[in-house]
Design a protein that fits this description.
There is one protein chain. The longest helix has 52 residues, at 13-64. The chain has helices spanning 13-64, 71-76, and strands at 89-90, 105-114, 117-126, 136-145. It has one domain. The chain is built from two helices and four strands; from the N terminus they run ααββββ. A four-stranded antiparallel sheet has the order 1-2-3-4.
């Protein structure tokens, strides 16, 4: 009797089921990471926007110059809001911060740190989502000197 040798072509049902199970598990792992990636992307965008707002405000103050960093000059130049008239000054309205960051506040403080030197701080605070009580705060500081 001659032995009949069959060549097996294709996959068995068990092999197909195992590969399908592995594919399903990997798909679920990657799908679960999508919401976390979207949340991180949104947070990074908000931080970038806050940095841009603060840096813009400091650049405006540098352009005004050391001798004009007072409420009257800054308000007349449209760099700070008219209210409050004492520190910390607000720049919510003039820069329309609410359009960029949810539930936000924006403040500017100016303090003397020595002869012919002022430290300016631009601070933006916002709530990253409407369903948490957590807030994010970003502060940029700069020294502006009298170069006369």
């Amino acid at each position: 009797m001659a032995a009949v040798i069959r060549s097996r072509r294709g996959l068995t049902l068990v092999e197909v089921m195992i590969s399908l199970a592995v594919f399903t598990v990997l798909t679920l792992v990657f799908a679960a990471s999508i919401p976390a990636a979207q949340k991180a992307c949104m947070a990074n965008g908000q931080y970038a926007q806050a940095i841009s707002l603060c840096q813009h405000k400091i650049d405006q103050l540098r352009a005004v110059g050391y001798g004009r960093l007072n409420y009257t000059e800054l308000s007349d130049a449209g760099i700070i809001d008219d209210d409050p008239s004492s520190q910390p000054y607000s720049f919510m309205g003039v820069d329309q911060v609410e359009n960029y960051l949810p539930a936000s506040t924006a403040a500017l403080t100016i303090q003397s740190v020595g002869t012919n030197m002022l430290r300016v701080r631009a601070t933006v605070t916002w709530k990253p989502t409407t369903y948490t009580n957590r807030t994010n705060t970003l502060t940029l500081s700069a020294i502006i000197t009298n170069v006369e």
